[in-house]
Structures are given as structure tokens and as C-alpha cells.
Amino acid sequence: MEILLTAAIISYIVYLRYYADFSTKADRERTQLQRGIDLYNTNQLDAAQHYFSQQIQEHPKQSIAYLYRARCRRELGDTSVALADLRMGESYDDTVADIHVEIGRILYDQRDYPAAFIAFDKAVFHSQGQEAMPYYWRGLTRQKLDQPTEAQTDLDQATTLEYTPHETLLGSPAPTPFFDRRLLINSAFVLVHSLMLLYAIKLSPVIHGPYLMAAVSAAAIGFAEPRKGWFLAILQVVSILVGYYVFTETPTNGGKRELEAFNLYGSVGLTFVGSFIGSILKRGMGR
After folding, report:
1. Calpha distance 136→156 (Å, rounded)
2. Can you tell me the distance from the alpha carbon of 142 to that of 146, in angstroms, rounded to the nearest whole number?
3. Widest CA span of the chain, in angstroms?
4. Which residues contact 208 (CB under 8 A, 6 or more apart)?
5. How far is CA 61 from CA 79, 92, 148, in A?
6. Fewer CB within 10 Å, N side or C side of the chain?
7. Same domain as 198, residue 254
8. 223 and 16 in contact (C-beta within 8 Å)?
9. Are residues 165 and 29 in the same domain?
10. Which domain holds residue 226?
11. CA–CA separation, 123 and 94 (whole Å)
12. Cα–Cα distances in Å, from 65 out to 30, 45, 159, 230?
């Protein structure tokens, strides 16, 4: 029992450290910089620029801070300094499609269409063809480069991706499906550990082992999926209840039966409480 408990806790730690967070460096920076992004999105450009300047001073390698300070500066009319910010942000993270789009837009306005095309082409590549704005601007640039057929293909693709200039410019994230790859992987992890928890419920001579396993696994659930953790908590609860009542035998001994009931329903309660606490901790870390 002690070996099982130790193995479960170690697996939770390894999982949270290496597999639970599927977000990119840029995603994490956007979360950390949300206050400034909100200022930018509400057109408080001076306040937003000041915020991102402070962030860059404290964390000089945040590419998203350079991106948004550049957006503020461009809209305030300081294009050359904005381009310098974008180049700096690009040097720290070349995979951010929005940085390439902003570079391309400045070069487009400067009528440097070949260089603008290269920037928009990078944006299409790094957005994995899933964002409309890189196609839209690459299409406009191809018109300037006398590539009408390719330009129309890009503009059609932008329309297919439901290009909306205002929302994309402000960086509003596209809606994602509920059952994405991350949730499916986390669900598989929950099912495996539900089996371990069920094993502990059946074999533990005391309540402490299953309770600790349930609390730790539930906290991991909330930490891994702060917004969808409720689904994983329900999945774990259903898994151990179905596993207990359908695939195991109820003890004939009254004392053993009561102990397993304490283990089972205590684990159910701790699953919901622990996942809630885990989600609060994860959201607090992102502020």
C-alpha cells in the first residue's frame, strides 16, 4: 500500500511538471500580461505602454510584452520604435505569429512589399494556417507584388477562417472545442489514476491512504485543467463508483464493508474539493 501511494504521488508530480501544461511560452506570457492586454484592448494606450515598459524592465525577455508595447507605439504614431520592439520580441521568440504580422504591417505601410511578404509568410507558417489575419495580409501583399491568383487564394482562405479585422487585431483568441487534445490526454491520465485509487480503496486497512491519493489526484486535476477540471473530477468520481459497484465484490464482513464505504465516499468528496482548490492555485499563479 505504501509503495502504491508513493508511486501515485510521484506520478502526479512528474505529470504536472512535464505533461499537464500544454501552453506555449507565448501563451503563458499572455496570461501573465493580461492586465496590460486589457488596457490595450480598451484603447488606454498610454497606460498600456507604461505597463509593458515596466514588465520589460523586470522581465526583458518577454516577447509578448514587446509585441503589445509595439502595438501601442504604432497606434500612437511611433512606427520606427515599434518596429525595433517587434524585432526584439522576435529575437526572443520567433514562433509568435502576431509579431510577424505586426512587422509585416509596418513594412507594408512603408511599401517594402517583398520584406512584408516574408513576414506574413512566417506568420502563416507559425500560426499553422489556423489564423485569418496572416492570410489576409499576405493576400494584400501579393496583390502589390502582382500575384493575383495567389493573392485571391490567400484572401479566400482568410474568408474561410472567418476573418474579422477588429477582433483579430485586438488579439481575441479563436474559440476552441471543449474536447481538445489536452483534455483527452488529461482524461486518460485520470482514468489510470482512478484505477489506482480504486485499488487503494479496496485494499487499504485505513482511510488515510485513499484520502491522500484522492486529494492529491484531485488537486492535480484542478491544476492541470483550471477551467475544465470539473469534467475531470466527474470523470474520476464516475470511474471509481462504476469500478467499485460493477467490477468489484462488496465485502461480506460488516467492518470491511463500512471501511470501504468510508474510503469510497470520502474519496468522492475529496475529488471535488481538491480539484476546486487546485484550480484556484493555478489561476492564482497566472495572475
Report:
1. 8
2. 6
3. 85
4. none
5. 21, 6, 39
6. C
7. yes
8. yes
9. yes
10. 2-20+178-285
11. 10
12. 8, 13, 29, 32
Verify that 205 and 145 share a domain, yes or no: no
* CA dihedral for 237, 241, 246, 251, sign (positive or negative): positive
Q: Among candidates 19, 3, 17, 11, which has minimal Cα distance to 182?
A: 19
| 8 Å CB contact between 40 and 72 | yes
- 72 shares its domain with 93: yes
Same domain, 161 and 79: yes
Which of 103, 134, 169 is where one domain is finished?
Answer: 169
Do residues 216 and 189 share a domain?
yes
Q: For 25-71, what is each residue's pLDDT tens digit? A: 888 899 899 999 999 999 999 999 999 999 999 999 999 999 999 99
Looking at the fold, whether 193 and 218 belong to one and the same domain comes out as: yes
Number of domains forming the structure of the chain: 2
Q: How long is the chain?
A: 287
